[in-house]
Every structure is written in structure tokens, then in C-alpha cells.
Amino acid sequence: MLELFVGFKEKIKEIWGIGVTPPPPLPDGFVDKQQSQLMLEVLANVWPKKEIIGLPGRRGLRFKMGPIYLELYVCAEEPILEEFNHPRFICWQPETRIDKPAGWHQDWMYLSSQYCVVELKEKYWEDWSSHAKRHRQKWLRDEACEMVETNLETFSKAYNRTNKVGKFLRASFLKTIQLHLDHHFKNVGLFVARRKDDKSIIGGLAVINYPDVSLSTHAISFITPEGLKTSVGTGVIDYWYMDCLKRGIKFLSFGLVWKPGDPDGWRGYSQFKKQFAITLLPYRYQFIKFIRAKKGIDKK
Q: Which CATH number is correct for 115-282, 1.10.10.60, 3.40.50.1220, 3.40.630.30, 3.20.20.70?
């Protein structure tokens, strides 16, 4: 109940513009995963009657909802809306923009989010916190364990044994991984840390790569009770960074980071994420508009 109250209080502040500071600029060259053709293709395959629309950098998805169509965009620049012979409701979430563009309305029901990304460099660990650096060194010296890549069946069995999140959420996360494996399996990384002697898994990380926008995203992570006695949490992150360097990927996304109003259970892992020299990207607003059939052609 307290979290709901805090979230409502923060929303009121946003509506009235109280304490809203300009967001930081996006890292040079960063593109949201929703602009990846691979990502959009996966989403378009999940729901029937969904199609990819728009231009590179301003792509979106359109699908039918009863008598109207819904268009969804997540992009830095205002989407270019083409002629369409049906009425449609359009939602645009800019990464950092907070001023309302002409012709759009602010979606008051939208709950803002905060994401974190890292621009990868060769000696990536140099900017980590002292705590993360220490655990990285400890993990690299740990000769009893090793990092290996695995298949979804092995990863799922180890992940499900942890019971850290509910059964429904675990199944949902794993289904997402399967959808990406079905569409572009070469860009899915399933890493596990295991003991060398008995091959028992003590931790793991699943990531999804989008090479067309040079981005790798954190999807699932887990640590077993035995793994908590080691530095495996930092170890799997370090392995992810090394894998991205090999692939030539420029950005890593850790996903959501806790902010006031978010579930209190996010705090712990959000603090863990902040050790790795992340850049916080607040997605504060969503803008909406309704366009009748054959209206709203933008010439840009």
C-alpha cells in the first residue's frame, strides 16, 4: 500500500511538473531495443495481425483492436505517421523527452520507468565500484568454478530450482527466451557458472543480443544458495561483458532500476546493477494521439 501511495505521489509531481529536471542526454549512438528489427519481428510473430511500421530509428508496431488500430513507438525522435485507411490510436514513448510536442497529449495513466545502460569499453571493469572490482578478482581466482554456455533446458532446470520469483513469472521469462531462440538463436546467450568437480550449477545469466542496434540486454539471472557463498553474481556479469567485447557490441542494458513507487523487492538487485558504471535513463512520459482514417500524414 505504501508503494502505491509513493507511486501516486510521484505521478502527481510529474503531472504538475514539480521537481521534474531535464533528463540526461542519451549515450552517443544508443538506440532502444524497440528499434531493433529483430526485436520487432519477434513481437510481431507473437500477436496475430501485428505489423512493423515506420522508418529506421522511428519504427513501431501496429495491431488491430476491435474497430480501431493501435500503434506503439519507442524512439527518441517523433515518429513519422503515414496515411492509413483506418482510425488509429497512437502511443509514443520517447526515451528522454519531457516537453509535449504539438498535436500530442500526455498519457496520464503511464507510469514512468528508469532503465540503466552501459557503453562498453576495452577495460570495462576500471569504472566499476571497488566492491565489484574486488568480487571480480575473487571470482577470477576461483579455480573450483567455471563459466560455460548451455542450452535452455539445462538453464531452465537450474533457474526453476531457485524459486526466487513466482512460478508464473519464471515461466514468462523463459517463454521470452524461447521466442528469441526460435527467431534468432545465435543472438541469445545462456551462461551458467558451475563447479568443476560435480558440474553443479551455482548461478546463471540469460542475455538477448540485438546486433542491428549494437545492444545486449539482461533477461534472466539467478544464484543458488551455494552460489551465495561465492562471487558468482559478479562473475556472470563479467562473463557477459567479455562476450559482448568478442561480439563487437557497444551497449549493454541491465533493464529496469528501482525508483520511488516501484516494488520494494527491486531495490536489492537495482543496487547490485549500479556497481557497474551504468547510465540511468528515465523514461518519464508517454504521448498519445487519435487519428481518423486517411488523416495525419507527416511530411518530414
A: 3.40.630.30
